[in-house]
Amino acid sequence: MADTNTTTYGRALHPLHAILLAFPLPLFLGALLSDWAYSTSYQVQWTNFASWLIAGALLGGGLALLWALIEWVISGPARTARHAVYFLVLLVMWILGFINALVHAKDAWAAMPAGLWLSAVATVLALVASLVGYSGLRGGVK
Asked: What is the DSSP secondary structure assignment for residue 141, as one 8-state letter?
């Protein structure tokens, strides 16, 4: 008897979406490392670096979030719970990143330790979003 089951693999992200998703993780990680450097050296320039890195992460993450929302809406019957998880993780990452940007807008001394913790959480959420996004949004056995 012939095996009629075929395995389908996760559909890859659109190349432009993949490029946009590539921004938040390294930029939030850079902000986390800059915050850590400030917490050990108290050189104000590290918080300035973190602020710019967070702004870049919010720009790339916001565009990836918009793309994820559009893909989630138009995917119709192919929509999975993974689409929702991906969108929600990106949304929470972006919101916490925005709060982190507001915290970094304060005086450097006042931005710590909240800025460091927010950068750490945003980095972890960016990692989770990258793992979910790059692993493919559709898959299973037909």
From this structure: E
